[in-house]
Design brief:
- By secondary structure, the chain is α+β, with helices and mostly antiparallel strands.
- It folds into 2 domains: about 5-145, no CATH class; about 185-345, Heat Shock Protein 90 (2-Layer Sandwich), CATH 3.30.565.
- It is built from 11 helices and 7 strands.
- It has helices at about 5-15, 15-35, 40-70, 75-100, 105-115, 115-185, 190-205, 215-230, 255-265, 300-305, 310-320, and strands at about 210-215, 235-245, 250, 275-285, 285-295, 325-335, 335-345.
- The protein has a 5-stranded mixed β-sheet, with helices on one face. Strands 1-3 form a two-stranded antiparallel sheet.
- The radius of gyration is 36 Å and the shape is rod-shaped.
Length: about 350
């Protein structure tokens, strides 16, 4: 065995539960020996405290490994209480007898032991109760940690699933738009390819992080809007305004795109003669406010425009998962327009 293997083996040993338990009892034994105030020979003290610790070990492990699993964890509270008290009643006289035999050459000490049977019983009871509290508390903490781990894994899995739906959703829509322009042999197609390249680079290489710099998310939004302006060819009114400056804040990626996509999809419908999409971002150190208003075709209802669609439903779920109680989403439905108002508290 080389030194590395020896070191790893030693670390595993020191971290093992058996070693920790053994160390606890050794330290407790030494502590009891040191605080013993009796005037009797040192070997007497050593034997006496060894008897004490031995009975504490029996009480603690009988309780932890048998009584608690068999009764308390199965919610058999009355049976557990009965079995626990019975254990203490059985152990206490045996411990008293051990003291009595230890002091067989000391009649005065034997008399003290007999007179203090109640104290011995109470100490044993206290040790047993302490082990119950310790076991229940540690089991609860372990359960809480496991629950948090499972919840974290579930959250991450759900977020990855939702993001995997958002990215292809937008990707295919944009490719369809580009395909339509190439069929028309539009001069806008090359510029759209460049914009799309920048956007896809962001989606593929940066949006996989849990949080991205807000400035990059805004740049992505700008590219998206510019792409839409190129595609629409100036037929509709498209405005984008930013109030404030990003100052290194972080935000979950691709939060705004589903709202933008829906607004362009329905706000610039061919049925509308003077369609419009107005986007406004307001930034400060701790919040981001997004306001999007768009025209609405007469035949479109709120449920068609805002309740449906993979992208929008996913972003609502992502908001609930990523910003619980830290976001507010409102939709204003008017006869000729829709408006989305989104506030996110940034960490």
């Amino acid at each position: 065995m080389n030194w590395s293997d020896f070191t790893n083996t030693s670390k595993d040993l020191f971290r093992s539960k058996g070693f920790l338990h053994f160390s606890f009892w050794i330290l407790l034994y030494l502590f009891l020996v040191l605080i013993d105030q009796s005037q009797y020979p040192f070997w007497y003290v050593l034997v006496k405290e060894l008897v004490d610790v031995s009975f504490y070990v029996v009480i603690v492990y009988s309780n932890i490994f048998y009584l608690i699993p068999q009764f308390l964890q199965k919610k058999k509270f009355v049976q557990y209480l009965f079995a626990f008290v019975l254990l203490i009643i059985l152990i206490s006289p045996i411990k008293t007898l051990s003291y009595y035999l230890l002091y067989q050459n000391e009649p005065n000490l034997q008399a003290i032991v007999v007179d203090n049977q109640t104290t011995i019983f109470l100490i044993c009871l206290f040790v047993g109760m302490a082990s119950t509290i310790f076991k229940v508390t540690t089991d609860w903490l372990v359960h809480q940690n496991e629950r948090k781990d499972l919840e974290s894994q579930r959250l991450q899995s759900e977020l990855k699933f939702l993001k995997s739906q958002i990215n292809p959703h937008f990707f295919f829509n944009t490719l369809n738009n580009l395909y339509a322009l190439t069929l028309k042999k539009s001069d806008l197609a090359p510029e759209i390819v460049l914009k799309l390249s920048d956007m896809m680079r962001y989606m593929l290489y940066e949006s996989n992080a849990q949080k991205v710099v807000l400035e990059k998310e805004i740049a992505y939004v700008k590219n998206y809007i510019e792409l839409e302006k190129l595609r629409q060819g100036g037929k509709f009114e498209i405005n984008f305004k930013i109030n404030g400056e990003p100052n290194g804040q972080l935000i979950a990626p691709l939060m705004f795109i589903p709202f933008l996509e829906n607004s362009f999809k329905h706000g610039l419908d061919n049925q509308i003669k003077s369609g419009f999409v107005n986007i406004e971002l307001e930034l400060n150190d701790h919040n981001v406010h997004l306001e999007i208003s768009n025209s609405k075709p007469p035949s479109v209802t709120r449920s068609e425009n805002y309740a449906g669609g993979i992208g929008l439903e996913n972003v609502k779920k992502r908001l609930k998962l990523l910003y619980p109680k830290k976001h507010e989403l409102n939709i204003e439905d008017k006869p000729n327009s829709f408006k989305i108002l989104l506030d996110i508290q940034l960490n």
